[in-house]
Amino acid sequence: MDTMWLEDFITLADEMNFSRAAEARNMTQPAFSRRIRALEEWIGATLVDRDTHRIALTEAGFAFRGIAEEILRRLSLGRDQVREIGGAQVSELRFASTHALSVTFFPSWFRGLEDGWDVGTVTLVADHMTACERFMLEGKADLLLCHHHPAASHRLDPSGFSSLHLGDDVLLPVSAAASDGTPIHRLPGTDANPLPYLEFEERSGMGRIIQAAKVAGSGITALQPVFRSHMASVLLTMARDGRGISWTPLSLAETDLKEGRLALAGDDQWHIPIEIRIFRPRARRSQRVEAFWNMLKARSA
Questions:
Q1: Which of 52, 142, 223, 290 is the most buried (most CB within 10 A)?
Q2: Range of the structural domain that residue 38 is part of
Q3: What is the CATH number of the domain that holds 10?
Q4: Residue after which a domain boundary falls, among 78, 109, 143
Q5: Vertex 185, ends 180 and 191: CA angle to 5°?
C-alpha cells in the first residue's frame, strides 16, 4: 500500500469531486481514479459511493478517513521526532494560511515577531480552509492562520488542536460604488429583484462563516448567486467591477473603501465580527515550533 493513496483519498473526501481532487493532486482524473480503486482493493471495501449524482463517502469511507488522517499525522510527527533524536535540528516553521490572511495579515504580523528572535527557516502555504485543515490533520503544517467565528464549523477538534487569538476583523457586504459614492447594489433586495451575489465556495472558511452567521441565504435577504470562488481577492475584484455584492474582510477591502472604489452594501446588521486565530496540534512538535508557540503565548498574555 502506497501512503500517497491515503493523501489521495483524504483530498477526495474534502473535495467530493474526482476532477477537483485530481487537479489538487496534480494528476489526470483517470490516474487519480485508478489510485482510489487501488486503495479500495487493498482495504477490501468500497470507500466512495459513485452511484449518486454527487459522490459521497460510504460508511466504510467515513470510518477510514479518520484512520488515514491519523496515520499520516503520526508519520509526520514520528519523522520529526526521530530527526531530532538523530541529531538533525528541525529548525523550520511550517505555516498554512488562508489566502486572504497570507496577504493582509501574515507579512506585517510575522515581521513584528522577528525582532530579537531567531525564527529560522519559514515555509508558508496559502490555500482555502479545507486544504489548510488537511495540511494540519496530515501533519504537513505545524501552524494554521485563519479567520474564525464561534458558530462556524471546522475540523480542528479542540481535543487535538489548540489556538490563540491574534486579532480581529469583520466581514462586510460590499458593492462597486456609483459616482456619488453610494453602492450600486444594496441589501436586502427583493424577491422580484434579487441582488447579484458573489458567493464563497463551500471549501472556503469565509463561506462557512457567512452560512453560520445566517446573514445570507436565510430568507432575510434576496440574493441570486452569479459567481463562486474560494478566494476573497477574486470575489473582491468582481465586486469592484460591479458584478454584484460580496462579503469580504475589512482587512482586504479597506483601501478600496477609503478610495471610493467600493461602498458598503448594508448597515451594521449585515456585518459579521470575526477573529484571526492561529492553531497548532496539541501533540508535541519540534523544539523550534514549541519555542515559537511559547513566545506567542507569552506575548498574548
A1: 142
A2: 3-78
A3: 1.10.10.10
A4: 78
A5: 145
DSSP string spanning 122-152? Answer: EEEEEE-HHHHHHHHHTTS-SEEEEEE-TTS
pLDDT above 60: residue 88 = no
Provide the whole-model pTM: 0.81
The C-alpha cell of 18 is what?
474526482
86 and 281 Cβ atoms separated by less than 8 Å: no
Q: Is the pLDDT reported for residue 148 higher than 80?
A: yes
Is residue 188 reached through a cis peptide bond, with omega within 30 degrees of 0 on the bond before it? yes
Kindly state whether residues 122 and 41 are assigned to the same domain.
Answer: no
Q: Which three cell numbers stand for residue 9?
A: 483519498
Instruction: In whole angstroms, give the CA distance from residue 58 to residue 174.
Output: 40
**Which residues are paired to 198 by β-bridges?**
227
Strand pairing partners for 229?
Answer: 200
Take residue 174 and report the three cell numbers written for it: 460590499
What dihedral do alpha carbons 221, 226, 227, 232 form, nearest 10°? -30
Side chain identity, residue 282 = R
In order of 159, 199, 209, 220, 254, the CA distances from 223 in angstroms are 38, 10, 17, 10, 24
pLDDT digits (tens, 9 = 90+) for 198-254: 999 988 999 999 999 887 765 567 899 999 999 999 999 999 999 999 999 999 999
For the chain, count helices (H), then strands (E).
11, 11
- 10 Å CB burial of residue 25 (0-12, 13-18, 19+) is middle
- Per the rule left: phi > 0, alpha: psi between -120 and 50, beta: everything else, 2 is beta
